[in-house]
Amino acid sequence: MTASDDVSATDAAARQADDAARTLAFRRSLRASRGRRAAAVLQRRRVLRSRGSVLAATFGLLFVSGGAIAAQSGSQRSGPSSDAIKAAQSALGVAADGVVGPRTRAATKRFQRENGLSVDGVIGPQTLGALGIKSGTTTARSAKENDPVLERIAACESSGDPTAVSPDGRYHGKYQFSLATWREMGGKGNPARASEAEQDRLAAKLLDRRGTAPWPNCA
To answer: pLDDT at position 156, please?
Structure first.
């Protein structure tokens, strides 16, 4: 073997070693690339699962909140009708708009306080009962609107004047209450100084209890 042959053999061996090293490096790089891709896929799956949990929790909260709102709405619907509230407002001497605002609550508390009821400003069954109004009615109106007998009595007794006082000073207001009868029905102060709605309410109460006997000349 000549010197030239030795050199060729050495070069061939070097090339083989170099090719083997490159193949090994490529395989290592390929394995690392596959590992990175697998890790990325796993991370994406974890993120998606996490997002799914958040969405599920959010929908759960929305469902619970919706149920609470529906329950609250149902509770509100179970209260007195708008007509009953208007009738109560009329009896309390405030604007009968069917909306329980600050003035209505204040008037309700005043009435509750004066009549020994729980003072909460809520027009509930107890307060409506004391006002002579049925909470479930859909046609609740003031005594003046609801009872032609009272209209006739008021026209006869005072010409419908809530501030009227008899010549002898014994009878007061639209229905000419005596002070004793007025107080017996739950009235405060002088009937002629009370609101017309309050006079209507107590006159209706008196009519329910005694009929037309308190007004013998006008029945």
So the answer is: 94
Q: How far apart are CA 19 and CA 184, in angstroms?
A: 118
Report the domain count for the chain. Answer: 3
DSSP 117-177: ---S----HHHHHHTT--TT-SS---HHHH-HHHHHHHHHHHTT-TT-B-TTS-EETTTTE
Inter-axis angle of helices 196-210 and 82-92, nearest 10: 100
* Chain segment 142-157, per-residue pLDDT in tens: 444 447 889 999 999 9
Q: Which residue has the higher pLDDT, 210 or 181?
A: 181
Burial of 40 (0-12, 13-18, 19+ CB in 10 A): exposed
**Residue 11 and residue 74 in one domain:** yes
CB atoms near residue 34 (< 10 Å): 10
CA gap 26, 97 in Å, rounded: 86
Whether residues 48 and 116 share a domain: the answer is: no
| SS3 labels along 138-149 | CCCCCHHHHCHH
d(CA 138, CA 98): 12
Is this prediction's pTM over 0.70? Answer: no
Domain hosting 114: range is 80-141
